[in-house]
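Input (structure):
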């Protein structure tokens, strides 16, 4: 299990970005309301479909829809070879409660950007 290490993006100028190669199950720390972005780049030889799942997610009430089950995690969907996806984590916060595991992405390069300290 690898930990996806964040890269702080505050201040001016350039910085070295920390990349983590995903294994069978990886983790990161979500900081609500800070504008974190998770970037996933598939440099493998095949399409991969990662899932981001906090073990504390259950159901979320959505006005006009009802309760939505988030216990299975956020399915990123298929990421084809050489494709890069960016996920603003505050937009999927209901899936990120508790300890977070990223599965189904073995070989993907992950970058976690933290715009706030």
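Output (sequence):
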């Amino acid at each position: 299990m690898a930990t996806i290490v964040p890269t702080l993006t505050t201040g001016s100028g350039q910085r070295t970005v920390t990349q983590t190669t995903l294994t069978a199950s990886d983790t990161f720390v979500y900081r609500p309301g800070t504008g974190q972005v998770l970037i996933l780049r598939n440099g493998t030889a095949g399409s991969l479909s990662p899932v981001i799942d906090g073990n504390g997610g259950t159901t979320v009430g959505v006005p006009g829809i009802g309760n939505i089950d988030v216990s299975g995690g956020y399915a990123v969907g298929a990421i084809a070879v050489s494709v890069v996806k960016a996920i603003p984590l505050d937009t999927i916060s209901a899936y990120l409660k508790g300890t977070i595991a990223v599965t189904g992405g073995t070989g993907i390069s992950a970058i976690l950007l933290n715009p706030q300290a």
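Notes: The longest strand covers residues 109-114. The CA atoms of residues 47 and 80 lie 4 Å apart.
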